[in-house]
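Data card: per-record layout.
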Amino acid sequence: MAGRRKKKRNRFEFLTKRFPIRMQRKLVMLFMAVILAFVVLIGRITYINVTKGSRYTRIVLDQQNYNSRVLAFKRGDIVDRNGTRLATSERVYNVILDVKVMTDKEECIEPTKEVLTECFGIEGSEIDALIEEKPDSQYEILATGIDYETAGRFNEIDEDDENYPNVQGIWLEEDFERTYPYGSLASDVIGFTYAGNQGALGIENAYNSVLNGTDGREYGYFDSESSMERTVKAAKNGNTVVSTIDVTLQGIVEECIQEFNAELAKDGELGSKNTAVIIMDPNTGEILAEASYPGFDLNNPRDLSTLYTEEEIAAMTDEEELNALNSLWRNFCVSDAYEPGSTAKPFTLAAGLETGTLTGEESYYCGGALDVADYTIKCNNKNGHGQETTQDAIAYSCNVALMEMAEKIGAENFCRYQHIFGFGEYTGIDLPGEAATEALLYQADKMGEVELATNSFGQGFNVTMTQMVSAFSSLINGGYYYEPHVVKQIQDENGNVIETKDPVLLRKTVSAETSAQLREYMGATMDYGTGKDAGVEGYDIGAKTGTAEKLPRGNGKYLLSYLGYAPQNNPEIVIYVVVDEPNVENQDDSSLVKKLAKSIMEEAFPYLGITTIEESEQAAAEAAAAAEAGKAVSDEEYTDFDEDYEDTYDKPDGEYIDENYDPDLDDWTGGQ
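The structure for this 672-residue chain is written out next.
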């Protein structure tokens, strides 16, 4: 017994020596501190779980995405003024492979590869390489742009578990592909898109933000009970752009342009450097058709085979190919500036009439040339036009008469009216790439006698087709300059109108009297002047032709133009045709552009329902008959009224028989 007590005492003494009392106290305090910390931590966790537990649970679960994917929006359509689709986005599918799921079971690999080959033409070797390179990948795009029919065949296989029980890891992702049902039709106006739904050229570019929508998203996560929850944020599709273009009229114009150039093409060369046409409503600024040659296929915009041989394309450097494409994509109607030639002559006369320096009653003598300063400037008729009126000067397109007009107008007035007509300024057309031409106009203080003389007949300054057709419309519609535009409406994806592009009247250029006077002169151009060969039977047309010699002078290069309208008294349509460097020996042959203009008008006017001469005469006769009938009815009413009533305010012609008439007041009194 005593021995046991001795052993315990010895053990206690050992511990006491090993852990002094002071150390033991510290250990106790540390243990208590740890216990206290655990108590506080548990309390904090309990508090968070009670007050914010659901919030943090969602945050954690949100990180556990399952099969998250983007839902592509559909880019809005571009349609013509009648609702015909010019550009649309068709639903297609991307083939996606989850490599990890496919290889999860060995027996699934070969059947899955067979289906990929059978449905989509994807070789098994491609899948083998993918398995080796990315065995853990869960999202690999194997093919894009799969059509609905092909996708349907795969879906039938995917649902047939009995015959294809071991196919897994393949799924189809919806997407959209931009297509153009009419190929190259209106290519300059419509434009195209490239990667990422970004518009290039035309309406596709100018209205890119309107046409684009917002992607949606589909994603899933596991909830607290490990059940998969799925959330879908739907995509917002883009809006529809309704253009002012008439697809039928556009087709007429482009077919005529193609036939014209096919006749002139030879030796592997194009029929012309450029051929372009704009048809506009002069009373709204709406462009009904706009086309240029050569065009390009909107579904394959990088195809240069229409302009170059395969050998030439293969030999191009990257920079040369890019330059060739930019040249092909360039919209001549908007982006190219040139000297307009004689189509500018009505603007010179308009400036004179508006400033009062000309009356239209002047007469001129043309001997074939005019000496200006130290230069002799020739007329378009080297033999001269002889004695002529102002109307003759426009009809025959006499340079000499126009130079004399400009001298009277003066440089200051001439330059001021160039800007009033919009030359040298942006028109504001809703298409990209509009050329700036301000630097290509003379300032009044820098315009000498020779410059004024040559500017008077359209040489020495530059314009664009859009500037010319807009300004000319104001000359013949009573003086109203409307902003040119190619879009008339924006609709949502359901066809509801969300914005209307109303005509924008920018300014008044000339008076109604000047406009009527100019129409009379340009009517003479078609009756007996330079434009008579372009006449279309049954229509009263006014016009001005132009033959501009290109720089450097004397190189035989010309730009031909025709600027016309119909009908004469109340213009409903303006047509502007330009042929730049036709592929003929003598490029100054104006019959070429008149032939093209006539072929277009012969088809376009009946389609558009432009008022004919017969309809105008019939309407005038009906109006005259109605006026005469109205006068007869009025006289008869007066007579009947006098016979039936004594009290009246009406005054019969010449006889005042009512008893309430007071001759001293020369008026009717009392009565009913």
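Known properties of this structure: Residues 58-65, 645-672 have pLDDT under 50 and may be disordered. The first strand starts at residue 66 and ends at 71.

See the next section for split statistics.
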